[in-house]
Amino acid sequence: MRRVALLIGLVLPLSAAGAAQEPQPAPAPAPKPVSTLQSAVAAPTRTPANVARDKYRHPEATLAFFGIKPTDTVVEIWPGGGWYTEVLAPYLTAGGGKLYAASPDWGRSGIDKLKTGNATLYGAVQIVDFPVFDGKAAEVPAGTADAVLTFRNVHNWRMGYRRDGKPDYSADAFKQMYAMLKPGGVLGIEDHRLPESADAERERTSGYIKVSTVRRLAEAAGFQFAGASEVNANPKDTADWENGVWTLPPSLGQGEKDREKYLAIGESDRMTLKFIKPR
How far apart are CA 193 and CA 208, in angstroms? Predict the structure, then answer.
């Protein structure tokens, strides 16, 4: 009996000690990896014809210059066929960010096509109106965007007419982009660059626009200039073509006339400008 009692005495303290230990918390799950700009540019979902133009458009370096983070809320103004949307969507989707595609109703077919073709990737892209053209109510909540980006569009606003017939609505466009941004938010602009020495009237017909004009429009809307990059510069482009920027690739508006010459020049010389909405 004494031996049994000794064994019980040894077991009980061990059992009590085990019961006193609190359960250990489960290890925290590893953070979900987010896409890098490099992997977004290399995404297999991009259209091969668009990838072929990376050598002219430098998407990774351009978006890095603008400081776009994968967690950002980004508004892409007039995305057209969605060339940059194909890069921004996987980048922001992986990182938990948000992408708005803002354009008039007549300019949405490219994004609609992307959403139809790959609902998993592009389904979260929110198509909204860019009301500068048609006067509708703003659909991007004011003061919510980390970045507003527009690629080769300012010249269109300078040249064009909005739905009510008003010409050159570029100043209104900058005011609306300013309203979308948070204080401290970024406005990124890439556009065809007209030499400062050129006649300003050429902005109305050539598809090129002066850096000084873009800066004037942005600063008049309240933006502060934050820097310029030459990543999209092309010194081969003289910007003096009779048929404007559409002479060069990808338009090749001259058809077969001097086609090899224009292919050798490549796409246009472009400014890449960054502005900040003051805090």
Answer: 5
Question: How many Cα atoms sit within 13 Å of 140 on the Cβ side?
Answer: 32
Q: What is the mean pLDDT of residues 54-58?
A: 98
The conformation of residue 207, written as its DSSP 8-state character, comes to S
pLDDT for res 22:
57
Domain contains 80 = yes
Query: Cα separation of 11 and 137, whole Å?
Result: 77
Element (H, E) at 224: strand 224-229
CATH code, 196: 3.40.50.150
Q: Does residue 227 lie within any of the structural domains?
A: yes
Mean pLDDT of 154-180: 96
DSSP 230: -
- Which helix (H) or strand (E) covers residue 94, if one does? helix 85-95
Q: How far is CA 55 from CA 12, 67, 153, 231, 237, in A?
A: 75, 20, 20, 11, 15
Confidence of residue 3 (pLDDT cuts 50, 70, 90): very low
**Structural domain contains residue 247:** no
CA 114 to CA 99: how far, in whole Å? 14
> In this structure, what is the dihedral angle of CA atoms 108, 81, 155, 134, given to the nearest 10 degrees?
0
Contact, 182 vs 277, CB < 8 A? yes
* Nearest 10 degrees: Cα torsion 192, 197, 200, 202: -60
Residue pointed to by tokens 């910007």: 239
Which helix (H) or strand (E) segment holds residue 88: the answer is helix 85-95
Please classify residue 168 by burial: count the beta carbons closer than 10 Å to its beta carbon, then call 0-12 exposed, 13-18 middle and 19+ buried.
middle
Lowest mean pLDDT among 28-32, 164-168, 244-248: 28-32
Domain residue limits at 205: 35-235+270-276
pLDDT score at 34: 54
